[in-house]
Amino acid sequence: MKIAVMGSGGVGGYFGARLAASGNDVTFIARGTHLEAMRAKGLLLDSDIGRLHLQPVNAVAGASDVPEADAIIFAVKMRDTESAAQSLRGLTAKGATVFTFQNGVESAARVGGILGRDKVVEGAARIAASISEPGVIKQIGNFARMEFGDAGGAHGDATRAFHEACIAAGIDAALSDNIARTIWLKFAMLAPMAGMTALTRGPIGPVRDAPAARALLQAAVNEAVAVGVALKAGLEMEDAAKTMRLIDGLPRAMMASMCHDLLAGKPIEIDGLSGAVARLAQANGVSAPTHAFIAGALAPFRDGKPAD
């Protein structure tokens, strides 16, 4: 299968490498020192699930350098959504299907608004991975799962073909028959975890251990679930307790990608996480003071490390 990876960080780099190692024709679209390192020394997965050194790597600077693709793993940061989607017009015109694995709950609408909703399949990636250094993806924990599916659960040929490729590559991949619920369940876990690990500049373990911090985490989960319920996205308030159990099962050393970006002085996805919860809550008559506080507290770091 011909696969393009738009955004070769923790998500795209990890799953793309697994797919390439199993014999698929994978092209990684990357930039800067990460691109240079992949071209020079390959792509290394420093993974608790299994170490992999992919070399050589087919890595390019832009989508225009990819002649054709059957599937596109779309895993860029949310602030790059529109520009990245625009660059894929040529590939989707030739028949490529875009599988979105971004954070947040608005990816399919934003990408579909540019490329056509019929060209987009929504997905959720559950993985603790990040670029630890150029050309290296660090993954921790025993989970690296992809879930995706067509709206309504009537999966088309492209979706099934991509799923088969993932399974053949040894990836824990599943077709979701209720993708809206799948996306929102991940969001209800990620937005609180990202906000709290970014606020504390550290892993989830100490947040869970400190009663006052845990209370904030619980409130953030409750608010996110309440917004999903109000939007009729397939959630129920009982999902809040399930989400907390999932968070309690995460590795103590795990930090959300937003925390990694904050510590590195990079722009952060606060607008699409706690910012989105607060915005959607206000629009739907739901109270979300915890996420409003998190979004406000992290606003100075939205575009990266503030100038001194």
Structure description:
The chain is an alpha/beta fold. It is built from 13 helices and 10 strands. It folds into 2 domains: 2-177, NAD(P)-binding Rossmann-like Domain (Rossmann fold, 3-Layer(aba) Sandwich); 180-301, N-(1-d-carboxylethyl)-l-norvaline Dehydrogenase, domain 2 (Orthogonal Bundle). The chain has helices spanning 10-21, 32-41, 81-86, 89-93, 107-115, 157-168, 179-200, 204-209, 211-230, 239-248, 257-263, 274-283, 289-298; strands at 2-6, 25-29, 43-47, 52-54, 59-60, 71-74, 97-100, 120-133, 136-149, 172-175. Strands 1, 2, 3, 4, 5, 6, 7, 8, 9 and 10 form a 10-stranded mixed sheet that branches. Strand 1, helix 1 (10-21) and strand 2 (25-29) form a beta-alpha-beta unit.
The count of domains is 2
Radius of gyration: 18 Å
By CATH, the architecture of the largest domain is named 3-Layer(aba) Sandwich
Q: What level of helicity do the residues show? A: 40-55%
Assembly state here? single chain
CATH homologous superfamily heading of the largest domain: NAD(P)-binding Rossmann-like Domain
N-to-C terminal Cα separation, in Å? Answer: 49 Å
Summed over residues and divided by their number, the pLDDT gives a mean of 96
Unreliable residue runs: none
Overall morphology: globular
